[in-house]
Design brief:
four-stranded antiparallel sheet; 490 residues; alpha+beta; Immunoglobulin-like; five-stranded antiparallel sheet; 19 strands
């Protein structure tokens, strides 16, 4: 076989050299990876050991503090010297070193056997000592037992008599009664303080203004951090449904707000029928949704109104959120009660305005709240509202909003509906129908409807009369969505 030329032989040697270098580099990378893995494992193991030791030190510290509290108990216990003497005498009595046991135990020689004089303890104890104490035999000092200060085993029927009495010999011929533990020596759990809201109420009669001052909140529950970012919303129901809120107070479980809110146009006759609602919320750093911490429902009828003097109150927060709907006038109390009934499919917020010069009705479909679920299919459906204007039972105009996702959609869409000219609008056979539709994929169902007009339900009639009587002023109300009168879903 002929020899390879010189350049080809040099290339093969160079390639073999490069291959050996590459293999060495790969082995070095593998060794480095293994070393880094061992280093990380050692670091994690060291952290775990440190955490375990720290936890153990904390437990030892708690035990030491608990023992210190036991030793610092100010309540009287059994004196250690008397106890040691009593046990010593009992041991001597068993071995026969004390000839006069009756004198050693303080028994009354004139009384019946086993009778103890009044100057001694009234409790009868029991001690099981087979022989003389070892400390006496070895001439060692007797150390008092720490357990006597907190826990004592007592026998007898004399109850919790004098705590300073020493152990006495049992009465001859009688059985040793059942022992029990003195509950006074046991520590009781400390009740956790409940969160409270402090506020003041003041009414200025010349301006017909109700002033509510949120002073602060105490003992809020802890979150993931030491403090919480919290704020308070203030409602005046049923007159004002939109809340007023305080500024956000950061990193505190006892925030102080000292903020005042004013509710105008409150006559003295309306005050007993109004209700203040305070809701406390916390802003969580890990979630965009604010969490509900508690609320206070305070009827204004409980206030002792004084001229020029504000009344201060402190109420405990209730963790249960009350199903109160937003109302805008005194007649909405009846609607709020009706909204909580099971056949309500949510509520719809509408604004109406009658423009007499143009012979038209302005309708603003603002938003809906807590719409009913018509299926168990996962996902969020779209909702829209269909508006029909009826004249003498016939549809004369139709409008429709855009679909919005969610069970509390916000449309904020205005419409103008033309009405027949001529005469008073209250005498015309007109009515408005708002049908809330739910769309999911290719399926569309009716959630419910709201009727407004002279022949509508009670709340619909009230809203229609307000619209006709206020002229160019908008009339806003919440309406309960009723499921009756709409076709079922296919």
């Amino acid at each position: 076989m002929p020899a390879l030329p010189g350049p080809l032989e040099d290339a093969s040697i160079l390639s073999a050299h490069l291959w050996r270098k590459l293999e060495g580099a790969v082995h070095l990378q593998v060794f480095l990876a293994i070393g880094l893995s061992l280093l990380c494992f050692c670091l994690l193991l060291g952290c775990a050991i440190c955490w375990h030791q720290r936890k153990k030190h904390r437990l030892d510290g708690r035990k030491a503090r608990a023992l210190g509290r036991v030793l610092a108990d100010p309540r009287p216990g059994f004196p250690s010297q008397v106890t040691a003497v009593a046990i010593q005498q009992r041991g001597m009595e068993i071995e026969g070193d004390v000839p006069d046991a009756q004198a050693a135990t303080g028994a009354d020689p004139t009384g019946p056997p086993g009778h103890v004089g009044p100057h001694k303890g009234a409790l009868q104890g029991r001690a099981s000592l087979p022989s003389q104490p070892l400390s006496q035999k070895l001439s060692l000092p007797v150390q008092p037992l720490l357990g006597w200060q907190r826990r004592r085993t007592i026998a007898g029927t004399s109850g919790f008599a004098e705590e300073g009495s020493c152990l006495c010999s049992p009465t001859p011929g009688t059985g040793i009664p059942r022992s029990y533990t003195d509950p006074r020596g046991l520590s009781s759990p400390v009740a956790k303080p409940r969160p409270h809201l402090c506020f003041t109420v003041f009414y200025a009669q010349p301006t017909a203004t109700l002033a509510v001052t949120v002073v602060g909140v105490s003992h809020l529950p802890k979150g993931l951090r030491a403090g919480r970012d919290s704020y308070v919303k203030v409602y005046l129901l049923p007159k004002f449904g939109e809340p007023q809120r305080t500024t956000l107070h950061r990193k505190s479980l006892n925030p102080e707000f000292q903020e005042q809110f004013h509710f105008s146009r409150c006559s003295p006759e309306e005050l007993p029928g109004l209700t203040l609602r305070f809701t406390v919320h916390a802003k969580e750093f890990h979630s965009l949704k604010h969490s509900f911490l508690g609320e206070v429902i305070f009827p204004c009828a409980e206030v002792a109104w004084s001229r020029g003097v504000s009344s201060a109150y402190a109420r405990e927060l209730s963790a249960t959120k009350t199903k109160l709907k937003k109302c805008f006038s005194a007649q909405d109390v009846e609607s709020a009660v009706r909204l909580s009934q099971p056949w309500s499919m949510g509520q719809l917020f509408l604004l109406l305005q009658y423009q007499a010069l143009a012979n038209r009705i302005k309708v603003l479909v603002r938003k809906a709240d807590n719409l009913g679920r018509l299926s168990r299919i996962p996902g969020t459906p779209d909702h829209y509202v269909m508006i029909h204007l009826y004249h003498d039972g016939k549809v004369i105009d139709t409008k429709e909003t855009k679909p919005m996702p969610g069970y509390s959609p916000v449309w904020n869409t205005p419409f103008l509906l033309s009405v027949p000219a001529g005469g008073d609008i209250q005498k015309q056979p007109l009515s408005l129908e708002f049908t809330v539709m739910q769309a999911r994929f290719t399926r569309t169902c009716a959630v419910g409807r709201v009727l407004i007009g002279p022949d509508a339900p009670a709340m619909g009639q009230v809203h229609w009369r307000e619209m006709c009587s206020r002229g160019n002023v908008e009339s806003a109300r919440w309406h309960s969505i009723q499921a009756g009168g709409v076709p079922p879903c296919p």
